[in-house]
Every structure is written in C-alpha cells, then in structure tokens.
C-alpha cells in the first residue's frame, strides 16, 4: 500500500513503456513523493503491461477498438482511473488523442512527455521534423496536458545536441535517454508540490541544482 501522503499516479501507455519503467523505478525510493498505482494501456498486447506486472504494479487494458467513439473510450478510462484512486495521470507514449472533456476533467492533474523542445515540433515524427529544420539542439519536454495538442504549460525540458550525420533513429536514441531521466524529475516536482500552475505557466519552487533545462 502506498504511503497516505504520496500522490497516487496512473501511467497510460500504448507500447513498450520505457518511460513508465523509469517512473516506476524512481518511485521505489521511499523519499519519492509519488506511488504508481496503475499502468493502463489501450492495447492489450502492449509490452509495457508485462513490464509493469513484473514490477508488481496493477495493470489494466482497455482496448480502444472495443468502443464506438472516443468519448465512450475515454469514459471507460476515467472510470478505471477513479477505481484505482488516481490523483495524477502520466501519459508515457499513450498514442490516443483524448477528448476535450476528459482533459478538462483532469486539468492540472495530467502530465505528458513529448519528444521535442516545445513549442517546436508538435505532433508526430518530431525527430524528422528537427532534422528537416536544421536545429542544433533537440530534446524532450514534460508539460501539463490541455485540450490543444502539445501546448500545455511546460514543467521541465532536457536538450541534446544534433550531430552531423544524424538520422531520426540515432537522434531518437539520444533523446529517449534524456526522457527517462527527465520524467521522474518532473513528476517529483509536481507530486512534491514544488511545481505549480500559475495562470498559463508553471512556477518552480526550490528548483533542483541542475535546473529544469539540462543540455548535454
């Protein structure tokens, strides 16, 4: 059972769950302010469900293909989250666009990690977008989710250099290393109430020594 003062987190995934594992491993530390209480996927065959079960985390599969529309699918997710007693949602490679109604119900209580330095390169194929734009820095962003895609207030970012000769796969491999480092730090800030929403932006109280933007 999680400690009463820990924030109860549900992680939503669609695939391997690499960022979910990073969050779960961080949450093993008794001082971490959050507990992973559920890993939920829209794909019953998602590898991340088995990885979560191996870590002793309750899992749930809700197949989006079994629902006639996004609203009824989102309602099923919402019910599962409430049954688990989730306080906060972390999207970690969840490849479904959530309805505005769902996002609004969880406003200020849902985080996402996106593989670019937002507001650059929203949507998909972000690494190819970065290479096409010729940027010298790329990276990842943890942000609060709002109805507009990839547009919520930013909690934390990590940057990586773009090398000559990079292709989308090599760049993605460099970014995912930073995603796994950044997401637990950002969750700790939010769950520990050191990152708070102030209007349309995030204010960090007592930021960690390495800051919230890490360039490597």
UniProtKB/TrEMBL annotation:
N(1)-(5-phospho-beta-D-ribosyl)glycinamide binds at residues 17-19. Residues 8-187 form the Formyl transferase N-terminal domain. (6R)-10-formyltetrahydrofolate binds at residues 70, 95-98, 112. It catalyses: N(1)-(5-phospho-beta-D-ribosyl)glycinamide + (6R)-10-formyltetrahydrofolate = N(2)-formyl-N(1)-(5-phospho-beta-D-ribosyl)glycinamide + (6S)-5,6,7,8-tetrahydrofolate + H(+). Keywords: Purine biosynthesis, Transferase. One of its GO terms (molecular function) is phosphoribosylglycinamide formyltransferase activity. Its EC number is 2.1.2.2. SUPFAM superfamilies: Formyltransferase. The active site is at 114 (proton donor). The record marks 150 as: Raises pKa of active site His. Pathway: Purine metabolism; IMP biosynthesis via de novo pathway; N(2)-formyl-N(1)-(5-phospho-D-ribosyl)glycinamide from N(1)-(5-phospho-D-ribosyl)glycinamide (10-formyl THF route): step 1/1. Pfam families: Formyl_trans_N (PF00551). Belongs to the GART family. Catalyzes the transfer of a formyl group from 10-formyltetrahydrofolate to 5-phospho-ribosyl-glycinamide (GAR), producing 5-phospho-ribosyl-N-formylglycinamide (FGAR) and tetrahydrofolate. This is Phosphoribosylglycinamide formyltransferase. The gene is purN.
